[in-house]
Automatic annotation (TrEMBL):
This is Heme-binding protein. The lineage of its organism: Bacteria, Pseudomonadati, Pseudomonadota, Gammaproteobacteria, Cellvibrionales. It comes from Dasania phycosphaerae. SUPFAM superfamilies: GlcG-like.
Length: 138
C-alpha cells in the first residue's frame, strides 16, 4: 500500500476525474474545489453548465469539511434536528457536498462539490473520495 501524507496536484486531478465521471453518469454539472492539508486549493474548476456561484460554494464546502474533519452534510443534519446553534459557528456551511480526505487516520485534504442537489453533491464527493482511497491500496 502506498503511504500518503499529502495531496499532490496529480492526486487532485485524479479526484476531479472521479467526480466528473460520477457526475456525468448522472447528468450533473458540478463545480469542484480540492484543498490540501493546509487548506490551500490544489484544484478548482466549474463545469461550463454550472451556475457561477457554485464555485464559491464548493470552496466553502471543502474548507468546512477540512476544518471540522467531517462531511458538511453532518451540519445540515444537525440543523434539521433543530440544532440552530450550528449557524453561529464560524466556517460552517450546512450544505452537503464537502467531504474530508482521510488516509490511514490522517486528514490530508478535502473535496467540495456544488451544482446539483445536496444529496447529489454529497454522493458525488463521497464516491470520489472513497474511490481515491481505494486506489491507494492497490
Amino acid at each position: 500500500m502506498q503511504k500518503k501524507s499529502k495531496l499532490s496536484l496529480t492526486d487532485a486531478m485524479q479526484l476531479s476525474l472521479f467526480i466528473q465521471q460520477h457526475a456525468e453518469k448522472n447528468n450533473w454539472h458540478p463545480s469542484i474545489v480540492i484543498v490540501d492539508h493546509s487548506t490551500q486549493a490544489l484544484l478548482a474548476h466549474r463545469h461550463e453548465l454550472a451556475k457561477p456561484g457554485t464555485l464559491a460554494a464548493a470552496e466553502k464546502k471543502a474548507l468546512c469539511a477540512h476544518a471540522f474533519q467531517m462531511p458538511t452534510a453532518t451540519w445540515g443534519e444537525r440543523l434539521t434536528k433543530g440544532e440552530h446553534w450550528v449557524t453561529t459557528m464560524p466556517g460552517v456551511i450546512a450544505a452537503a457536498g464537502g467531504v474530508p480526505i482521510e488516509v490511514d487516520g490522517e486528514f490530508i485534504g478535502a473535496v467540495g462539490v456544488s451544482g446539483s442537489s445536496q444529496e447529489a453533491d454529497h454522493e458525488t464527493a463521497q464516491e470520489a473520495v472513497q474511490r481515491f482511497c481505494r486506489s491507494l491500496k492497490l
